[in-house]
Amino acid sequence: MSGTLTSIYNNVSYALGLHTAEMSRLQEQVATGSKVNRASDDSSAAYQILGLNSKQSSLKNYIDNISNVVNSLGYSSTIVQNMMSAVSETMTQLTQVTSGVYNEEDRARVAESVNEILEQLVSLANSEHSGQHLFGGSNTASEPYLIERTNGRITNVTYQGGYNSRKIEVASGLESVISLIGDDIFRCDDRGEVVFLGDTGAKAGTGTSSLRGYAWLTVTGSAGNYTLSIDGGLSTFSTDGTDTNLAVTNSITGQVLYIDTTEITDTGTDLVSVSGTYDIFNVLISIRDILSNNRALPEDQVEDMLENSLGVLEDVNDLLAQTEVSLGYKINFLDNLGDNLTDLKYDADDEVTRLQEADVTQLAIDLARLEILYQMSLSVAGQLMSMSLLDYVG
Question: How far apart are CA 149 and CA 115, in angstroms?
Fold first, then answer.
């Protein structure tokens, strides 16, 4: 008999315990609003929620990265637009100069304006956004353009940034450029012919020159004993006028210009132009110097140089326009990608909500039903537990 009573007691206690645990589970769901508070509540749903949470986190990181890239590229695009406006202003002024209506004093005034535009463009090229230089490629910590001055005026601008773009991941397996390579944006890289603008008679040699953009070639001496330089006389190279491919080196930049000296007939200064290799800064330096005419060049030579410079400015402006179009395309693509990823994140959010969020109304009904059953179970258990040995004997 003792074994039977013990068995009844154990069974009743176990059943009430299960009932109590179920009520506690429902009460916890009502309190938290979640039907999966731990993996044991629903292992299948918990596994799905874990995967969706990981997906949500990845999507959020991608969306944040896209926002950062779009902001950076948008800021870069604004800078390029401002530079295009400045170049267009220079072209307008240069057109007025080449039309012949400006005198020497007017040219000097335009030279100062070009100098101010040069200062502005170099400053824009060294712009920062969120503590990172925009046009330094992979090297965003320091200014990408090094400025050299003489008597307070810019005389040379050299790119010292990285030659690889800085990229960040904006989707699974997809990266986007966030920091641009200034040397690709502000310099043409389609080397063409070497043109000598002047009256010395110097011509391009047969070698492939490494000279870029503009350079001033000075020829001194006399027939049979000419001295040539492209760095203002810091380094000189002599010829007897029979060299067809004389290598003249700029000691500052290391760039080489190959010259055919056989037709040199006079001393003086030539402006050497290497088409397709211009950078916006040194072009403006040359234009400013041509307008200032500190070398006392003949009027017809100055006019030829300014005409050539106008064509070069058009090439540089086209380069900036191509960059602006490219940036606009990238920004538009990233905006669309961001919208798509945001939609995917919303879908993941909804799925997590569907799996996790409890139906409070249904929970209240289930809980009320369980409480009634629990009260009834307690009543029945009370009667069972109050049975005595006499009940069985009788």
Answer: 12
Type of residue numbered 240: D
How would you class 100 by CB atoms within 10 Å of its CB: exposed for 0-12, middle for 13-18, buried for 19 or more? exposed
Cβ count within 10 A of residue 148: 10
Tokens for 209, please give them. Answer: 């020159």
Q: What angle do CA 190, 260, 155 make, to 5 degrees?
A: 55
Q: Of residues 217 and 386, which shows the higher confidence score?
A: 217
The pLDDT tens digits of the residues spanning 18-32 come to: 666 666 666 666 666
Average pLDDT, the chain: 85
> Distance between CA atoms of 274 and 294, rounded to whole angstroms?
22
**What torsion, rounded to 10 degrees, do the Cα atoms 344, 346, 348, 353 define?**
-170
Cβ atoms of 359 and 367 within 8 Å: the answer is: no
Tokens of 290: 């041509």
Q: Is the pTM of this model over 0.70?
A: yes
Query: Residue 148: what are its φ and ψ, rounded to 5°?
Result: -115, 135
Backbone angles phi, psi at 162, to 5 degrees: -80, 155
In angstroms, rounded to a whole number, what is the distance separating the alpha carbons of residues 236 and 229?
A: 5
DSSP characters for 67-86? Answer: HHHHHHHHHHHHHHHHHHHH
Q: Under the phi-then-psi rule, with left for phi > 0, alpha for psi from -120 to 50, and beta for the rest, what region is 34?
A: beta
The structure tokens 């629903």 sit at 42
Give one DSSP letter per residue of 247-267, joined into a string. EEE-TTT--EEEEE-TT--S-
Q: How far is CA 158 from CA 22, 43, 287, in A?
A: 75, 63, 17
Distance between CA atoms of 127 and 304, rounded to whole angstroms? 35
Higher pLDDT, 379 or 122: 122
Q: What is the sign of the dihedral through the CA atoms of 379, 385, 390 and 391?
A: positive
Instruction: State the amino acid at position 14 in one-letter form.
Output: Y
